[in-house]
Amino acid sequence: MADVQPISNANTPQEIAKPNTAIIWKTFWILLGLTVLEFIIAFTLPANTFRVGIFVILTIAKAAYIVGEFMHLRHEVKFLIWTILLPMIFVVWLLIALIAEGASIFFA
Q: Which residues contact 23 (CB under 8 A, 6 or more apart)?
């Protein structure tokens, strides 16, 4: 009689890979640090354009980090990154130009 191999059953218990949570915790701590920094700035600096500018910069930094990590954009090729970033830069520039132009007409 030939050497018979047992049929592999897909439901046999196998070793489950240990999850790599280090990257998730690193992301959590970075975003928490940026958020704490925003709260410190909010409650210590007086309300002026400098504080608003810091909030805008920190918000853009958090958004870029979230897009890079959770949408996996950081791991893509550079051409795809620039394909996404360049139109976004022009849209932000357009919004700033429209707000400035609208404010100059409204308050003139």
A: 69
In a shared domain, residues 66 and 80 = no
Residue 22 pLDDT exceeds 60:
yes
How far is residue 95's CA from residue 88's CA, in Å, rounded to a whole number?
A: 11
Position 21 pLDDT exceeds 90: no
Q: Is residue 25 domain-shared with residue 68, that is, in the same domain?
A: yes
Whether residues 59 and 85 share a domain: the answer is no
User: How many Å apart are CA 37 and CA 78, to the nearest integer?
Assistant: 30
Decide: pTM greater than 0.85: no
Residue 33: name the closest of 56, 67, 74, 65 by CA: 65
Indicate whether 48 and 27 sit together in one domain: yes
State the Cα–Cα distance between residues 56 and 41, nearest whole angstrom. Answer: 12
What single DSSP character describes residue 71? S
Secondary structure of residue 48 in the 3-state scheme: coil
Query: What distance in Å separates the CA atoms of residue 35 and residue 33, rounded to the nearest whole number?
Result: 5
